[in-house]
Amino acid sequence: LLPVFLAGSTISRATLHNFDEIKRKDIREGDFVKIEKGGDVIPKVLEVILNKRNKDSKPFKVPDRCPVCNTKLEKPEEEVYYYCPNYNCPAQVQGRIEHFVHRNAMEIEGLGESIIEIFLKNGFLKNYTDIYDLHLKKDEILKLERFGEKSVDNLLAAIEESKQKPFDKVLFALGIRHVGERSAKILAKSFISIDNLMNATEKEIQEVHEIGPKIAQSVSAFFKDKTNISFIEKLKASGLKLESEKSLIKENESFKNK
User: Fold this and answer.
1) Within 10 Å of residue 208's Cβ, how many Cβ atoms?
2) Range 15-22, long-range pairs (CB < 8 A, 24+ positions)
3) What angle do CA 210, 99, 162 make, to 5 degrees?
4) Percent of the chain topping pLDDT 90
């Protein structure tokens, strides 16, 4: 949006939610719109001011192909979002790595969006498991612009420190669809180790309190994929915690059936 002062701050962006909402409100490029702050915080578009619309404006066309890899997009019937189904789409690969290092997941400080992009471009990363091999590429990284000895050492130290993250954090970091922080904690507590979870049936996963059919189906599908299994094996070899602490298990068992 052209910057406008509203309820104490200057607004230059407003959420459009999804393509269905754009269609419902018939929002077009170049339109003048009325905006408000939802809950006095989040700017949103209320409606288009039609008498200010350009005569040659056209309805917004929903893209049918991924803008990065050109794969045909998919839209599940019960959902409003469109998805690129190409697992190896460069944007998805980067997105999975960004999710893995996020502060709510493995919390690897110094490995932000721009650094991940540089490492992907130079072939240092192909997926999130390669993060734990970056120490082998230290000399090559130091040859890049913007990378000094201290910053690289700090990054490698943060990567090493992330190996101490508990199992539920690692599970969340894997980016299994529909598995948020809370459901990752529940699954980690219920199955104790990644091996138990991998070997569980969809029915067994769904029997866990608070785990619905969507999550169960998604988790089951994730662990049937050979690529994901190979990633898990590599994370095991790197020394990540893929089972709950023994002390936590004992504590949980003391409340069993009570």
Assistant:
1) 17
2) 15/42, 15/43, 15/44, 15/45, 16/45, 17/44, 18/80, 18/81, 19/60, 19/62, 19/80, 19/82, 20/80, 22/60
3) 95
4) 89
The contacts of residue 66 (CB under 8 Å, 6+ apart) are: 72, 73, 84, 86, 89, 91
Q: What is the DSSP letter of 203?
A: H
Backbone angles phi, psi at 45, to 5 degrees: -85, 125
Retrieve residue 210's tokens: 């608070």
| pLDDT tens-digit readout, 55-106 | 999 999 999 999 999 999 999 988 899 999 999 999 999 999 999 999 999 9
What does the block give as tokens for 151? 């910053």
Residues contacting residue 113 through CB under 8 Å, at least 6 positions apart: 94, 98
pLDDT tens digits for range 156-183 = 999 999 999 999 999 999 999 999 999 9
Cα–Cα distance list, 33 to 29, 50, 80, 195 (Å): 11, 9, 23, 53
Q: How confident is the model at residue 146 (pLDDT cuts 50, 70, 90)?
A: confident
The residue length of the chain stands at: 258
Instruction: Please state the separation of Cα 84 from the chain's center in Å.
Output: 14
Q: In whole angstroms, how far apart are CA 116 and each of 19, 46, 84, 143?
A: 29, 37, 21, 16
Whether 249 shows a pLDDT value over 80: the answer reads: no
